[in-house]
Amino acid sequence: MNQVPIGVSARHIHLSEQHIEQLFGEGYQLQVLKDLSQPGQFAAAETVAVVGPKGRFDKVRILGPARSQTQLEISRTDAFSVGLNPPVRESGHINGTPGITLIGPAGEVTIAEGVIVAARHIHFHTDDAAKWGIVDKQLLSVKIDGERALILEGVIARVSDQYALDMHIDTDEANAAGAKNGDMAWILS
């Protein structure tokens, strides 16, 4: 069995350049707060408020760099809190998803779609995937050990020479397993 590090993904948002400018001002550039596990990705110093039909979250962390489409990733528990029922999707697959209102220091934007519960996945560098016989989009079974051990099914393998080995689960999944950032999980199949 092969071990992978766990990265717990709290609610966060990816913004397009257009929405960064609408929320923070013309020509605004996100400031790096800290680098993330994936090369070139970072948590920005900036946050926005998100407002749904039944509630809001202030200080939702922006992840950079800018993307082609704005996308809010929340847990199922978060979705209930703001009054939405987003589908579980891979990042970037936002067609037909609910929208939400975003509030920044320089403006407000309502997106028509873009709210998802991120599908659990593992980022594999192509070298790691080849060594372990794993192909892109393969569905894996993964065990998280510990006091509340559990097996996650349907974990999507995402393979690229731009990735670093890391399994991403949301806060609901991490809480169910008693897992935290840096814990290890085992690929079963």
From TrEMBL:
Pathway assignment: Polyol metabolism; 1,2-propanediol degradation
InterPro entries the record matches: PTAC
Pfam families: PTAC
Family to which this protein belongs: Belongs to the PduL family.
Cited function: Involved in 1,2-propanediol (1,2-PD) degradation by catalyzing the conversion of propanoyl-CoA to propanoyl-phosphate.
UniProt entry tagged with the keyword Zinc: yes
Keyword Metal-binding: yes
Keywords of the record: Acyltransferase, Metal-binding, Transferase, Zinc
Catalyses which reaction(s): propanoyl-CoA + phosphate = propanoyl phosphate + CoA
Stated name of the protein: Phosphate propanoyltransferase
Domain of life the protein comes from: Bacteria
The protein's required cofactors: Zn(2+)
EC number(s) reported in the record: 2.3.1.222
